[in-house]
C-alpha cells in the first residue's frame, strides 16, 4: 500500500520534518509533490521515533506546510549503472546533463557503497604513470592507493587535475583504464574548463564526469563523491577496469557537510565541523583499493584547498590520517611561475616503495628518489644558511647545492601543462641533475648504481647530443654556471695577489 503524507511539521533550511511516519528507514529516498505539481527528491537523514527528518535535494523553497505530499519509495539513494556511463556528464546527484538522454541501467546500486572486507583487500602494487616528473619519480601513485593533493586557494590545482586526467595511463597493455572525475562546488567557468579540456584532448570517451556547481544545493554536493565512487566501483570490480577517481574540491564537500550538520542542530566540533567529519571522510576514502578475485582497481586522487594554507586545518589534517601520503603544492613556487608547484619535501607516497623498481618502473627508481630527496633537503639547509651569512660566504660545495636546487626546481619540478614525460625520461632527467653534483656527495646510492647511471648521465651532459629539450636546457645552464664560477675565481685570485 502506498501512502502519501500530507503537510509537513517544520521546515529548516534544506530540511523538512514529518510526524507519524510509519515503516520508514534511514537513508530512504522520498518523493515530495508541491502545490504546482512539481516533484522533488529527498532522503531521510534522521529518525526519532515516528518523526522523520528529510533533506530535500533541490532545496525547500516553495514547499508548503499544509499541502505538500510526501511519498516513501522504500529504497535508498541509488545510481543507475551501465557500460554506457563512459563519456557521459552528470550533475551532482547522478542525473545526465549532457543532453544525451537517460542511462538505461544494467543495475542500480546504493550510493553509500558496501564496505570492503579487509581480509579481501589486496596490497596495492604497480603504478599509474601521470606524466608529471615530481609525482612519478618522488611520490609515485600506486594502483588502489588514495593520495590527496593539498593545495591553496588560487593555485593551479585545477590545471594539474586536468593534466593528470589527460596523461594518466597504466603499464599493462591489456588493462582498461578510465577516469571518474567529480567536481564539487565549482564555478561555472571552472566546470566549463574541465568539460572543454576533456573534450578537446579527446579523452572524454574514457571519462565519467560529475559536476556540482557552486550555486547548486549543498545536499547535492554531499551526494556527488558517493555517486562518483559508486560508478568507479562498478567499472572496476564488475567490468574489470582500472579507475582513477579525481575529486575536487574536498574542502567544498566538508563545508557543505558543516552547513548541513548545523541545520540539523548538531553540536559542532573543531572550527564548526561536525564531530563525525573523520568517519564521514573515511567512508569516502576507504572505497579505494583492490579486491581478491577482481582484476580492476579503484585509485583516488582527492584534491582539497587548505584555508589560509594551513595544513593543520581539520580537512587536510583528518585527510592526512586516512590517506597514504599527500602531494603538497607550494605557494612560493607558484609565485615563481613554477608549474606544477609541488613542494617535494613535505610530499610523500607511503605505498610507493612496493610499486616501483625492477618489474614495475626501473631498478634505479628507489635509489634515485632517495638521493633526490636527500640532495634537495641539503639545498634547503644551505638556503637557510645563506639567508644568515650571505651566499658569498658559502663553501664551494654549498654553492654547488644552491645551483642544484635552482636546476631541480626549474627543470625537474617545472614542466609544461601539456608536457607528458615518460617514467624513463623523468628518471634520466633526475640522474642528469645529480650529475651536476660531485660523485662523493651522493651517499644514498651504491657504487654499482653510480657506475651504471651516474657516469653515463655525466657523459650525456658533456655532449651536444642532449637527449631531450629539458636535458639541453639543463646542460646550457650548467655550462653558464661553470663560466660564472671561473670568472669569480679569476677575480678573487687577482685581488689576493
From TrEMBL:
The keyword Protease does not apply. GO terms for molecular function: ATP binding; proton-transporting ATP synthase activity, rotational mechanism; proton-transporting ATPase activity, rotational mechanism. GO terms for biological process: proton motive force-driven plasma membrane ATP synthesis; vacuolar acidification. Residues 457-497 are annotated as: Disordered. Residues 131-349 form the ATPase F1/V1/A1 complex alpha/beta subunit nucleotide-binding domain. Keywords: ATP synthesis, Hydrogen ion transport, Ion transport, Transport. Residues 354-454 form the ATP synthase A/B type C-terminal domain. Produces ATP from ADP in the presence of a proton gradient across the membrane. The V-type beta chain is a regulatory subunit. This is V-type ATP synthase beta chain. It comes from Caproicibacter fermentans. The lineage of its organism: Bacteria, Bacillati, Bacillota, Clostridia, Eubacteriales. The gene is ntpB_2.
Amino acid at each position: 500500500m502506498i501512502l502519501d503524507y500530507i503537510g509537513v511539521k517544520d521546515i529548516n533550511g534544506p530540511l523538512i520534518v514529518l510526524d507519524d511516519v510509519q515503516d520508514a528507514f534511514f537513508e530512504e529516498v522520498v518523493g515530495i509533490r508541491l502545490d504546482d505539481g512539481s516533484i522533488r527528491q529527498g532522503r531521510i537523514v534522521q529518525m526519532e521515533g515516528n518523526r522523520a527528518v528529510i533533506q530535500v535535494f533541490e532545496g525547500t523553497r516553495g514547499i508548503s506546510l499544509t499541502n505538500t505530499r510526501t511519498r516513501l519509495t522504500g529504497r535508498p539513494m541509488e545510481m543507475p549503472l551501465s557500460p554506457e556511463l563512459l563519456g557521459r556528464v552528470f550533475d551532482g546527484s547522478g542525473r545526465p546533463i549532457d543532453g544525451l538522454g537517460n542511462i538505461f541501467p544494467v543495475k542500480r546500486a546504493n550510493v553509500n557503497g558496501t564496505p570492503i572486507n579487509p581480509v579481501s583487500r589486496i596490497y596495492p602494487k604497480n603504478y599509474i604513470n601521470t606524466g608529471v616528473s615530481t609525482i612519478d619519480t618522488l611520490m609515485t601513485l600506486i594502483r588502489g592507493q588514495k593520495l590527496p593533493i593539498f593545495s591553496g586557494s588560487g593555485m593551479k590545482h585545477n590545471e594539474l587535475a586536468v593534466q593528470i586526467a589527460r596523461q594518466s595511463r597504466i603499464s599493462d597493455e591489456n588493462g582498461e583504464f578510465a577516469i571518474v572525475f567529480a567536481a564539487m562546488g565549482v564555478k561555472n567557468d571552472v566546470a566549463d574548463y574541465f568539460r572543454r579540456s576533456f573534450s578537446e584532448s579527446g579523452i572524454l570517451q574514457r571519462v565519467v564526469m560529475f559536476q556540482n556547481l557552486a550555486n547548486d544545493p549543498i545536499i547535492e554536493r554531499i551526494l556527488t563523491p558517493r555517486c562518483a565512487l559508486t560508478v568507479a566501483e562498478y567499472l572496476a570490480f564488475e567490468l574489470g577496469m582500472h579507475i582513477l577517481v579525481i575529486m575536487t574540491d574536498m574542502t567544498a564537500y566538508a563545508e557543505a557537510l558543516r552547513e548541513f550538520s548545523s541545520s540539523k542542530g548538531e553540536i559542532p566540533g573543531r572550527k564548526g565541523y561536525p564531530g563525525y567529519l573523520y568517519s564521514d571522510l573515511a567512508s569516502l576514502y576507504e572505497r579505494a583499493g583492490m579486491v581478491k578475485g577482481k582484476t580492476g582497481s579503484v585509485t583516488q586522487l582527492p584534491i582539497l584547498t587548505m584555508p589560509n594554507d594551513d595544513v593543520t586545518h581539520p580537512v587536510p589534517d583528518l585527510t592526512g590520517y586516512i590517506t597514504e601520503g599527500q602531494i603538497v603544492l607550494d605557494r612560493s613556487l607558484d609565485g615563481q611561475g613554477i608549474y606544477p608547484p609541488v613542494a617535494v619535501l613535505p610530499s610523500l607516497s607511503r605505498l610507493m616503495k612496493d610499486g616501483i623498481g625492477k618489474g614495475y618502473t626501473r631498478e634505479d627508481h628507489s635509489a634515485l628518489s632517495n638521493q633526490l630527496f636527500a640532495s634537495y633537503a641539503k639545498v634547503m639547509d644551505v638556503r637557510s644558511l645563506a639567508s644568515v651569512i650571505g651566499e658569498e660566504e658559502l663553501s664551494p660545495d654549498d654553492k654547488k647545492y644552491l645551483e642544484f636546487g635552482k636546476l631541480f626546481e626549474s627543470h625537474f619540478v617545472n614542466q609544461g601543462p601539456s608536457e607528458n614525460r615518460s617514467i624513463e625520461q623523468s628518471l634520466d632527467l633526475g640522474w642528469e641533475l645529480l650529475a651536476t653534483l660531485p660523485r662523493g656527495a651522493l651517499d644514498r646510492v651504491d657504487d654499482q648504481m653510480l657506475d651504471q647511471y651516474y657516469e653515463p648521465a655525466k657523459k650525456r651532459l658533456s655532449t651536444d647530443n642532449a637527449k631531450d629539450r629539458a636535458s639541453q636546457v639543463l646542460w646550457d645552464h650548467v655550462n653558464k654556471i661553470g663560466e660564472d664560477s671561473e670568472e669569480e675565481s679569476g677575480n678573487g685570485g687577482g685581488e689576493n695577489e
